[in-house]
Amino acid sequence: MTGPARETTSTEEVRLAVYTGFARTGRAPGVPEPAARTGLTPAQVGRELRRLHALWRLARGWYAGRMERGYIRREPATAAAYFAEVGLRGPFWGLPSA
Questions:
Q1: DSSP label of 73
Q2: Cα angle vertex 54, ends 51, 87, to 5°?
Q3: Which DSSP letter does residue 19 get?
Q4: Distance of CA 49 to the CA centre of its chain
Q5: DSSP code at position 41
Q6: From first to last of its 98 residues, what are the pLDDT tens digits of the chain?
Q7: Are 49 and 14 in contact (CB under 8 A)?
Q8: Whole-angstrom Cα distance, residue 14 to residue 69?
Q9: CA quadruple 51, 24, 96, 73: dihedral sign
């Protein structure tokens, strides 16, 4: 695969490799572990880790204030539209990959 579809797949592969590392060892894995698990180069893993960090900041902004008094829950369709608008895709975000 090439282009954005491959990038989304790579991001998801790295995310899963990082979470698997956390679950297995209780610590954040270094770059070599996700690289070995996904077959990506260390540079590619680093790029995907930076992408995941940026995506998490966007998602965190969406959920800001949810524990505060008076917070109004957003409708699932509104959440899906927001996440798609800011480029979040895939099952981790509760959205279709395409």
A1: P
A2: 80
A3: H
A4: 9
A5: -
A6: 344 444 468 888 999 999 998 899 999 899 999 999 999 999 999 999 998 888 787 777 777 788 888 888 878 788 778 777 777 777 776 666 65
A7: yes
A8: 36
A9: negative
